[in-house]
Write a structure and sequence with these properties.
This protein has 169 residues and is α+β, with helices and mostly antiparallel strands. The protein has 1 helix and 8 strands; from the N terminus they run αββββββββ. The strands form 2 sheets. It has a 5-stranded antiparallel β-sheet with strand order 1-2-3-4-5, with helices on one face. The chain has a 3-stranded antiparallel β-sheet with strand order 6-7-8, covered by helices on one side.
């Protein structure tokens, strides 16, 4: 149904509303173009969000590994520097201090580096640990810790007296 609007002419040379090309809605081309542009913007936004999420996860993981490394380094350094003897027993490190307290370091199957005090008491020194390897050489303790993200960190520590017993196991 066509409607014709009749309005008085305003001025000479002006168009009346009956002859203007007023239209309502959008054409199919306009809708398709808007849909394509919206899809491109959505795809770019999604890609950006995924990239930001991955970067955040990498930074968080790196920060956690750094914190675990700092904890392990601090505790091992303190105990090794106070140790009068260092011994390897199987895959663990035994440090004995001057007052007779012995600490045993090992990586458990839960991905933790633990310190076990002889006579009782276990402390988790670091988490996210895949493996740990120790070497004892002439008053030095070498430790290598591999974290679950694949990063390996190493440290060399000196014992109090430089006294080292032989490796067992």
């Amino acid at each position: 149904m066509w409607r014709v609007w009749v309005t008085p002419a305003k001025r000479c040379g002006s168009r009346s509303a009956a002859f203007s090309s007023s239209r309502e809605g959008f054409t199919l081309i306009e809708v398709s173009l808007a849909l394509v542009l919206s899809t491109i913007v959505l795809a770019l936004s999604t890609s950006l969000m995924v990239s930001l999420w991955r970067a955040e996860n990498r930074l968080t993981s790196a920060g956690e590994v750094e914190a675990m490394w700092a904890s392990a380094h601090r505790v091992l350094a303190t105990d090794a520097h106070a140790a009068t003897s260092a011994t390897l027993r199987f895959e663990s490190l035994m440090l004995t201090e001057a007052d007779g307290i012995t600490y045993r370091y090992l990586a458990n199957n839960r991905g933790q580096l633990v310190r076990i005090e002889t006579g009782g008491g276990t402390a988790v020194i670091a988490t996210m640990v895949q493996s740990v390897a120790f070497q004892v050489l002439l008053g030095e303790v070498h430790a290598s810790i591999t974290f679950t993200d694949g990063e390996t960190r190493e440290m060399t520590l000196c014992t109090l007296s430089g006294a080292v017993s032989s490796s067992l196991g």
